[in-house]
Amino acid sequence: MALVGKKAPKFTVGAVINGEEIVDDFSLEQYVGKKNVIFFFYPKDFTFVCPTEIHAFQEKVAEFAKRDTVVVGCSTDSEETHLAWLNTPKDNAGIQGVTFPIVADNSKVISMNFGVLGGEYSFDNETRTWSFAGAPIAYRGTFLIDKEGIVRHESINDFPLGRNIDEYIRLIDAQLHVEKYGEVCPANWEEGETAMVATSKGVVEYFSAN
């Protein structure tokens, strides 16, 4: 079920912050009323595509910050595994130097609530046992959450498909433009380009707020 237009699911779990400190009470609620959030899931620590995405997000942290937006990562690995990976040099396939929070979804509940877990649990009433079909890790899900805690965008990539980080900056620009001017943003819109507004007669007018 799509989360767009709804409150982002709440959680309070362990995470690594600032690339070096484990906390046990991390929550996205701390940003409500203060910051927009790019919350992204990746499959596993110590893999191949994942560090390329994580470093790509890190390279754009300042750009996100200019837009009043924080970046938060998440996988089903433990906070201890996150910390070990954060202490592994980049040239050794690590993510040393990454400063944004990385959440530990040990229980897989966060991944399930956001609809990105790569499989599902089922219960056999006859044997009274649980089983899991699929991959017990997260797809590459990405969520843009506004300052009110509402999900404004979501996308989910299969495991082999890496993300384009610049697209999330474009989406934040579009969301901020909509909030500021009340206009809507057409296909391929970028900051500074012409936006749109629908008139009372159903006619679409194009104009730039700049």
Automatic annotation (TrEMBL):
Active site: C50 (cysteine sulfenic acid (-soh) intermediate)
UniProt subcellular location: Cytoplasm
Domain Thioredoxin residue range list: 2-177
Gene Ontology cellular component terms for the protein in this record: cytosol
Biological process according to GO: cell redox homeostasis; cellular response to stress; hydrogen peroxide catabolic process; response to oxidative stress
One Pfam assignment: AhpC-TSA
Keywords: Cytoplasm, Disulfide bond, Oxidoreductase, Peroxidase, Redox-active center
Protein name: Thioredoxin peroxidase
